[in-house]
Design goal:
By secondary structure, the protein is an alpha+beta fold. Helices cover about 60% and strands about 15% of the residues. It has one domain (about 5-125, about 135-150). α3 packs antiparallel against α4.
Length: about 150
């Protein structure tokens, strides 16, 4: 597959993943007024995260939230620019595209809903993993891909 076709393929996959995440968040907003428990270890519970991953840097005050949201948006734009550079240089961009898709969806939440829509909950006994969403999974997979690529190139 040539470079252009490969780009369109991954761009198409990125759009599909973006739509899946947006639909899942729409579902969470409209159908998770009460937590929904599927098993002892898996549930869905709606929360607006006004911080970053794992609820770090959570700000109730609008100024703190605006600072965090602005920084996240700037970092996302820098990743877009870097991805374009890597693409033009002939490098792989799958990891970057996943980060961009997840980041873009979460930034949309920040500006339209006042926080990132998190709703996936895993627990074990009294231990709870912080709530997250599909976009967070895409970001994590994208970072993992970049780490693997970096280690392979050492």
């Amino acid at each position: 597959m040539n470079k252009k076709k490969q780009f369109y393929f991954w761009f198409f996959i990125a759009v599909i993943l973006f739509v899946i995440d947006r639909l899942a968040k729409w579902w969470a907003l409209h159908y998770l007024a009460k937590p929904l428990r599927f098993t002892d270890w898996f549930a869905c519970e709606l929360m607006l995260n006004r911080g970053i991953s794992l609820g770090l840097f959570h700000f109730d005050h609008p100024f703190g939230y605006l600072v965090v949201s602005t920084l996240v948006s700037i970092i996302l734009l820098l990743i877009v620019r870097w991805t374009w550079y890597v693409y033009r240089s002939g490098g792989p961009i799958v990891g970057q595209l996943l980060i961009i898709v997840g980041g873009l969806s979460n930034v949309i939440d920040r500006f339209f809903y006042g926080g990132v829509i998190d709703f996936i909950l895993f627990s074990w006994g009294n231990l709870y993993w912080p709530l997250f969403n599909i976009a967070d999974i895409l970001i994590d997979i994208g970072v993992l891909i970049l780490i693997i690529q970096m280690l392979k190139n050492k």
